[in-house]
Write a structure and sequence with these properties.
86 residues; mainly alpha; 63% helix; 0% strand; transmembrane; transmembrane helix
Length: 86
Amino acid sequence: MNANLIIISILIYGTVSLLTVLFSYNLGLRNGREIREEKEVSRIVEDKGKRVKMSKEEKKEMDLINTALMNIDNYDGTNRGQRKIG
């Protein structure tokens, strides 16, 4: 029972891996042809670039958080490079 389950799992994994490799190879060929023919390369995932509108209070709070994070990044054991929050 366990051996059959392992064999079936390996076969499914192998099939999915093979299909992924073939899809990626085909995608690479298509993009290569488009680049060689100087066409615009089609994208699979489109980035919409939506912006989030924030109120002034939210922007101020976001600036405080970013300042605190920069202080953490710049910390070297002293107060050099630290900015005041608030």
